[in-house]
Specification:
Layout lengths: L2 H15 L27 H5 L6 E9 L6 H14 L4 E4 L3 E3 L6 E2 L1 H11 L8 E9 L2 E2 L6 E5 L2 E5 H8 L7 H16 L14 E2 L5 E2 L8
Parallel strand pairs: 1-2, 1-3, 1-5, 4-6, 5-8
Antiparallel strand pairs: 7-8, 9-10
This protein binds zinc ion (ZN).
Zinc ion (ZN) binds next to helix 6.
Length: about 220
């Protein structure tokens, strides 16, 4: 990676990840299996990190037409999860296409409704499920690449990826995806100071659940 390329990647991260925390979510009633998929990001960090309740992980990925994620981005996410989670098996499903909705922007509540319409993989006896939805519009509330919108759910805003990875000297779509997929998963794993206690104080409190170190994934 050359200097100019690295620099442009850093600038993009600074611009688009600076405000990507999601809003608050109201707790809903527990379902039969007693796993609630609609609580705040970070609240299931322990269930993802340890094998106490779930020794397997499945990740469902759905994308709107035209915004299929790259295999490289997903493979890099799998490597990241394998290195950090105490699971006997981690499966990232083949991405599934869902109908485009044609909206130019989405609120967090609209993202949650789309998940309710389309998501089909949920946590079961030994296996916890995570979910990515890739949308055909941008986020209404902030200029970001992605958000974590529930305890097991993350959304990416497809057109933003094309925007930041097009042009001479821009990082590749694969590299941007790798960083954003990992960053949003970091939020549901309890980073930063959002469900898992910090080993040292590095929270950038002015920017929500983010880190003060500009070389950190959660900056
Ligand atoms: Zn973030």
């Amino acid at each position: 990676m050359n200097v100019r390329y690295a620099l442009s990647l850093l600038i993009i991260l600074f611009l688009f990840l600076a405000a990507c925390d999601s809003g608050t979510v109201t707790d809903t009633d527990e379902n039969e299996f007693s796993f609630n998929h609609e609580i705040n990001p970070g609240q299931s960090a322990t269930e993802f990190l340890t094998d106490d309740d779930f020794d397997q992980l499945i990740v469902q990925v759905q994308y709107m037409q035209g915004y299929e994620p790259t295999q490289e981005g997903l493979s890099n996410l799998e490597v990241f999860l394998n290195e950090r989670l105490n699971k006997t098996s981690i499966t990232i499903m083949t991405p599934e296409e869902i109908p485009a909705s044609g909206q130019s922007s989405y609120t967090a509540d609209e993202v949650r409704d789309l998940e309710r319409d389309h998501r089909s993989q949920f946590s079961s006896e030994n296996r916890i499920a995570a979910y990515f939805i890739i949308l055909d519009g941008e986020f209404e509330n902030a200029d970001v690449l992605g958000i974590a919108h529930f305890n097991t759910s993350m959304a990416l805003f497809g057109p933003k990826f094309d925007e930041v990875s097009s042009g001479i000297g821009s990082p590749s779509k694969e590299d941007v995806e790798t960083i954003v997929l990992r960053h949003e998963f970091g939020h549901i794993l309890g980073l930063v100071n959002n469900g898992i206690d910090m080993q040292e104080n590095h929270q950038d409190t002015e920017n929500g659940r983010h880190c003060v170190n500009d070389e950190c994934l959660m900056y």
